[in-house]
TrEMBL record:
Lineage: Bacteria, Pseudomonadati, Pseudomonadota, Gammaproteobacteria, Chromatiales
Organism listed in the record: Granulosicoccus antarcticus IMCC3135
Name of the protein: ChrR-like cupin domain-containing protein
SUPFAM superfamilies (UniProt xref): RmlC-like cupins
Pfam family, one: Cupin_7
Cross-referenced InterPro entries: ChrR-like_cupin_dom, RmlC-like_jellyroll, RmlC_Cupin_sf
Stored CDD domains: cupin_ChrR_1 (cd20303)
Domain ChrR-like cupin: 9-111
Superkingdom to which the source organism belongs: Bacteria
């Protein structure tokens, strides 16, 4: 199964506008942003857990990273409220659930298979520092290795912002908005920028708070081959 799987193309989706699909587990639904594969897939998805819903215990052979957008996500390792960023590396396992319900943005099968670094960050409390190159931008690096960089960025109102997209980029708007290529990218919108595309955006009147991932789209061919 392939959904929005031409990674050479720019893609902009407003996630609340996407229809929910039931998952194999009762009370867990999904909004698919991109996908390569069937139930085991390289996927970028928004997932909703109804109160008292859960997934069975499982191993993330290809790794998992997620951002909690609403509510509290839980597993045997802890409780993660909205604003949490988690990386569960390849071969890690857990039993996810949510007692009161939650919504998360999650990416699967997009890690270096030798990666073993676990990350837990509260984006509500991390320290943001001025970007020395880009005026009007503050940031905090959540994760970085030879494949990718993941950051929380805060853009001042009206700031003109560029990104290094040599390795592609993904942006998820956590709050505020910006315009790019004549389109408004607002709260809970997801934007994927292909390799080597020019990126310049203008932050909206309230600025923008954005989860940003760069560099990783160089490896989509490799990731597809794993699941062929």
């Amino acid at each position: 199964m392939e959904i929005n799987a031409d990674f050479s193309q720019r893609s902009l989706l407003h996630t609340p506008d996407i229809e929910w699909q039931d998952s194999p587990m009762k009370g867990v639904r999904r909004r698919v942003l991109d996908r390569v594969g069937n139930e085991v897939a390289r996927a970028t998805t928004v997932v909703s857990y109804a109160p008292n819903s859960h997934f069975s215990s499982h191993v993330h052979t290809g790794g998992e990273e997620f951002v909690v957008l609403e509510g509290i996500f839980q597993d045997e390792h802890g409780d993660y409220p909205a604003g949490s960023y988690i990386r569960n590396p390849p071969q890690s396992s857990h039993t996810p659930r949510s007692d009161d319900g939650c919504i998360i943005f999650v990416k699967l099968w997009q890690f270096d298979l030798d990666d073993r670094q676990h990350v837990v960050a509260d984006m509500n409390t991390v320290e943001l520092n001025n970007d020395p190159v880009r005026s009007g931008v503050q940031l905090h690096t959540l994760f970085e290795d030879s494949r990718e960089t993941v950051r929380l960025e805060q853009w001042e109102a009206g700031a003109t912002v560029t990104l290094d997209t040599n390795g592609g980029a993904e942006l998820l708007v956590l709050d505020g908005s910006f315009t790019q290529e004549g389109e408004t990218v607002d709260k809970l919108s997801w934007l994927r920028i292909p390799l080597h595309a020019d990126f310049q955006a203008t932050a909206g009147a309230s600025g923008a708070r954005i989860w940003v991932k760069t560099g990783h789209l160089r490896f989509t061919k490799e990731e597809k081959q794993r699941l062929a």
